[in-house]
Amino acid sequence: MTQQIQWNRRGILAGAGALGIAGFLPTQAAAQGLNLGLGKGLGLGSLLGKATDGALDKLAQPGAFYGDEDIRIGLPIVGNLGGRSGGLFGRLMNAGNRLGVLGDVTRTINDAAGLAAGEAKPIFRDAINGLSFEDAPSIIKEDDGGTQYLRSSSNERLHSRFEPLVDTALEKLGVYKSFDGLAEKHSFIRQAGWNRQSINRSVTDQGLDGIFSYVGQEEREFRKNPVGNIGGALGDLLGK
């Protein structure tokens, strides 16, 4: 029983370190506690798991991507069109907007990203479980340090696993078919060089940007009220 209590206390310190509420602890001690607590429900791994779950739940809601201008997914920019707002790309987009043929496609692309987000929890959990938290002190100092670390460590892996989910969603909602149909009717679509691969990659890139933006928000909110967020878990650990 004594050993169990000691372990529980270590778990509590781990959660405190991860959430930035162990201000009285030296950074090294907080980091050690954080590492001990991973997988125990109060460590940084748990914090990131909760943050990613919360972000994905929000973005899986109908219209979530399109409704937030900060993360709204735009039409793919490919080839030598680059990221320019003017020039050929600007003329093509202006022509498309005047014709009224792009609005519905843009919304559907965002809906596809939302569908993919709703299926993405396992791949984010796997990425979190595969992290090494040796850089815990620097992670603890930042309000969204865990999110930054997850992205810098796992972005390529997450991209490769998120891309098929996006591809399936784009297919399911008829985005590829829509582009094919538009290309037959409008030359500017053909000029833009859109194809299945470029559309999928662009939506995946922008979708991950939006997801990580929301994960960071969730992490920051979690850290603002760490006691309230882990209160129930503390009670469980202490057997209360």
Automatic annotation (TrEMBL):
UniProt xrefs under Pfam families: DUF4197
Organism placement in taxonomy: Bacteria, Pseudomonadati, Pseudomonadota, Alphaproteobacteria, Sphingomonadales
PROSITE patterns: TAT
Name of this protein: DUF4197 domain-containing protein
Organism in which the protein naturally occurs: Erythrobacter crassostreae
